[in-house]
Amino acid sequence: MEIQFILNNKQVTADVGPDTLLLDVVRSLGCKSVKCGCETTNCGLCTVWIDGKSRLSCSVLAAGVEGRQVMTLEGLEDEAAEFGRFLAAEGGEQCGFCSPGFIMNVLAMKRELDNPGTEEIKEYLAGNLCRCTGYMSQLRAIQKYMAVQKEKGGKEEYA
Prior knowledge:
Elements: E1 2-7, E2 10-15, H1 22-28, E3 47-50, E4 53-56, E5 69-71, H2 77-89, H3 99-112, H4 118-124, H5 136-152
Helix pairs in contact: 2-3, 2-5
């Protein structure tokens, strides 16, 4: 079946089967930031936004995004790069394999939560697995990034 949806602010069409996963479709459309890391919905590497909400693309049938908006890290490059600088400054960026899904969730959290505390941040990001860094450097980067974003004027709305 043919589906149409908006991918990173561009209308796209894809031919999908009834069991085709969104993960496979967005990768076939050039979004290599979306990765399969576990095949069990436990790692967060395949995180995308569907209509502005974080979702694991390995658990979404492609047919379910007909007419909807899907955003990957490729559609948020400037914003992702800004947070990436905080991550690198705190030593929270090592191999980079998990970074796209992690960054997608941090940017979603920025939009959804006002001034989250440490426990809220940990809870929000509980589904993101990182095998290299440990999590304290990432937590420091998030806290500093969120503080700077608050000074800039708060949350951004999903476009």
